[in-house]
Amino acid sequence: MNNYLSDANWLEFEKNHVWHPYAPLEGALPPYPVKSAQGVYLTLEDGRKLIDGMSSWWSAIHGYNHPILNQAAKAQLDSMSHVMFGGLTHRPAAELAARLVSLTPEPLEKVFLCDSGSVSVEVAIKLAIQYWAAVGQPGKQRMLTVRRGYHGDTAGAMAVCDPETGMHHLFTQILTQQFFAEAPSVVRDEDWQDSDIANFRSLIETHHDQIAAVIIEPIVQGAGGMRFYAPEYLRQVRGLCDKFKILLIADEIATGFGRTGKMFACEHAGISPDIICLGKAMTGGYLSLAAVLTTAEISRTISANPPGAFMHGPTFMANPLACAIANASVDLLLDSPWQERIPAMTEAFANHLQPCLAWDGVADVRWIGGIGVLELEQPVNLTSITRRFVDKGIWARPFGRLVYVMPPYVIDDKELETLLSALTQTVAEEFMG
Question: Domain tally for the chain?
């Protein structure tokens, strides 16, 4: 393949023409150019190596350039990289569905493979609405969720993100108006107070005839604020959904595949949703792929009533290359000592983050599984703090008042020590002078 841009001008072209997420096209901090990635390290074009504390936004749980995942990709390429899923099928999709059915809580057993996390949320919402239409209750079309949540950037997903503190307030007037309960605030079951669920209960009691489903991020609210909440809240939600005959959608796009210390965060509460959304870590960060699982009862009801099919079909649904890599990634996870590595991360977070709570300017510290969070009293200066991180040889991507990490599971003790020491030192320099 011939390069269209020269070594001398590709970065200049990129700066002027390529958009990055949640950033202006002009005037933003120039992105750091990555030449290669290996294990937990990103190597920049200038030769500097950074320990990746973000797992490429939750996804690269096995690190980068893993030989097993590379081989899975190469083997699948020799067979086929893509074929339409309409009227055709292939073994990698069936193999992946079998793995997901075996791992997720019963009675989830029907699998819809799609393109991305946001699309999986769209699929889940449409499944819920079409199910209620099929059983003769077409008035149940709205969603109930909790504030401070984040579910994606497409229209249906944006509509169930927090309309005020979220990232999509600009589009509020064009989105379907959903029901929002106050965000859970109790963090531990031993501190449970029934008042924490009172607003949610009131909304479901009042509007259950309009509500098709509750959608919630189990235990961890991710991009909406990196907040954690008590498993008892999720148990209460499950009970209220059962009582008022409302479907429960668990958005495990970020939390799935071990990140919270359980394979899926729902397991902390011992509940099973009616629909679950998976993505991010499923392919180990190699390709975009997501999945929605639901029950036989829901799929049977939709299929047995007009129009006789679920009305969704992405072009790249069940892409064979992505499915083959996902199969290898899931097997790699199951064969690894992830259930030892995640608690080791948790302990390291406690050791490094807890002392920061005494610092002026630090509002809170928290951790669960392989997620560590420093919440500050003032928003970070993204340009300044990112430069300090890179100078110290680490990569982290704060937002708002939050400095957080979720490293690849393969990070070793020394690398984790380096990452967390550099992270806390940077916060001290940036905010304490």
Answer: 2
